[in-house]
Design goal:
Blueprint lengths: L3 H6 L5 H23 L6 H20 L1 H5 L4 H21 L2 H8 L4 H17 L4 H11 L4 H7 L2 H23 L7 H17 L1 H9 L21 H43 L3 H15 L1
Helix pairs in contact: 2-3, 2-6, 2-10, 3-5, 5-10, 5-13, 7-10, 8-11, 11-13, 12-13
Length: 293
């Protein structure tokens, strides 16, 4: 393992990551300006979450040690992909980018078109079964030669550096955006799939840790390697340890968020029921009994 000074002092330039930062940061800033002109004051903690937790963590991952050594080290590549999939999107989603876009964009043809384009992906990813399956598919990439091909190709590694956070954002947004609230029954279904994901996410990491076979088949072709570089098998085992740890830890905030949403949804439904008259309650009970009959 590298020393702390090597880990903190290693930086490199990534044009793909720089482009992502400029576009994402520029669009969010434009949204804040437009919202301010419309008289809407965006919450400060959401702005900090987007820029610091979201874009800040993305920059540290992409330009720092993990991004620099991702082509040579399996464990750096695995940590980078896991953080881009789970941590970065969480910070970006807390900034409510879709909500800000709704406030910033004027009513018109462009807004209608963009809303129509975004509606279908959000609906698909709001399905409780989609996020666990996609998350498992991305992590399972580490068990195939595809991991070696993508991490050793500057083009594909750059594409992954942009595509993985966007994919993770689509997985998180339906649970965070206020416009996508769902019923208590659907939240309970999401709990089931969240626990399935908690178990499934451990599989790739465990296999990488326990298998004596190098899954990605990649061979280091560089010159002299630093003394702290692990062997290929030890590298894969470290990757499995970190992949398992990060995937399991990042499932916990999802469960907490679902608990919060369940409490709010249940409170809202109780409030609606409390406001019903006795006659309306009798009608609901009669309709329910008729459906069961």
């Amino acid at each position: 393992m590298p020393t702390l000074s090597v880990f903190l002092g290693t930086w490199s330039h990534d044009p793909w990551a720089l482009g992502f930062l400029l576009v994402a940061g520029g669009l969010y800033t434009w949204g804040l300006v437009r919202a301010s002109r419309a008289g809407v004051r965006w919450q400060l903690w959401r702005i900090v979450a987007f820029y610091v937790l979201g874009l800040g963590s993305y920059a540290a991952i992409s330009f720092g040690f993990l991004g620099t050594y991702s082509p040579e080290l399996r464990w750096a590549f695995s940590i980078r992909i896991a953080l881009l999939l789970f941590v970065v999107p969480a910070g970006l989603a807390l900034g409510l980018p879709l909500g800000l876009a709704r406030v910033a964009m004027r009513q018109g043809r462009l807004r209608t078109i963009l809303a129509a384009v975004a509606r279908k992906p959000v609906q698909v990813f709001s399905n409780s079964a989609v996020a666990p399956i996609l998350g498992l598919l991305v992590l399972s990439m580490m068990l195939t030669p595809l991991a070696g091909i993508t991490r050793m190709s500057p083009l594909w590694e750059g594409v992954l550096g942009v595509a993985i956070p966007l994919l993770g954002l689509l997985m998180v947004l339906p649970m965070v955006e206020e416009k996508t609230r769902v019923s208590t029954a659907l939240i309970m279904v999401q709990f089931v799939f969240a626990f399935i994901e908690l178990l499934a996410d451990a599989i790739p990491g465990l296999l990488m840790r326990l298998s004596p076979t190098i899954f990605d088949g990649a061979t280091f072709l560089g010159g002299a390697r630093p003394a702290w570089f692990p062997s290929a098998l030890a590298d894969q085992q470290l990757a499995g340890d970190w992949l398992w740890f990060i995937a399991e830890i990042m499932d916990l905030p999802i469960l907490i968020l679902l608990f919060v949403r369940l409490a709010k949804s249940d409170k809202g439904e109780r409030k609606i029921l409390d406001e019903l008259t006795d006659e309306q309650m009798d009608e609901l009970n009669a309709a329910h009994l008729n459906q069961r009959g």
